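Q: My labmate handed me this sequence with no annotations at all. I'd like to see what the chain might look like in three dimensions before we decide whether it's worth expressing. Could you predict it?
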Amino acid sequence: MSGRRRTLDAVTETELARKRRARKMARELAVIHPDAHCELDFTTPLELAVATILSAQCTDERVNQVTPKLFARYPTAADYAAADRTELETMIKPTGFFRNKTDSLIKLGAALVEKYDGEVPGKLAKLVELPGIGRKTANVILGNAFGVPGITVDTHFGRLVGRWRWTDETDPVKIEHAVGALIERRDWTMLSHRVIFHGRRVCHSRKPACGACTLAPSCPSYGLGPTNRAEAVKLLKGPRVAELAALVDEELPVAGATPVKGAA
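A: Here is what I predict for the chain of 264 residues:
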């Protein structure tokens, strides 16, 4: 990263300028996280629906440890509908909230059998009416199992687009629509993956790695975390830490940078 880093006054930014900045950041995210993808393992829309339900309040890694045996035991919607509750609870217990999740999976299976011949529908309006599937889960399924562009507003996504001042909205649906107005529809699904990757690997909740983030020149919240490169690099996470660190040049950021007032 060349040149002096700066913070942005997002308060006076025009809508056109915000859109241009957001799209520039989206392009940079594609360079930063070329490996971004859905981190839940699946081969069918049903498997993704199940895995996404299990991922609530649970890491994707833990879900992926549970699902191979689960998918082998329950390959169809009818299998979930007819599942023995105790057996299913035992299999998914490591994901937490297993009683509620078991209830959702059994009801989901029954609804799919009754309404859609056991198949997961590829329409948002139909998905959100199914047990255990809200709008976020529906967008995950649409984007990754059906190739229909969708924005997934999870905790990471909501936090980062707020820090970046892409929107001041806090409601997930309003965030989805606000970001959708900034970014081209064809890019929604991959944008979601890249933002989530960035939230997990660089822009952490409590201590973001500001000094090791190549988005810094476009980020109005630069300075929330350590701006010293060496200190920030230690905060990077994931399998590509060395590559992420290499994206930032050796020049330390300007001392005294402060985030925009009221930054999240």
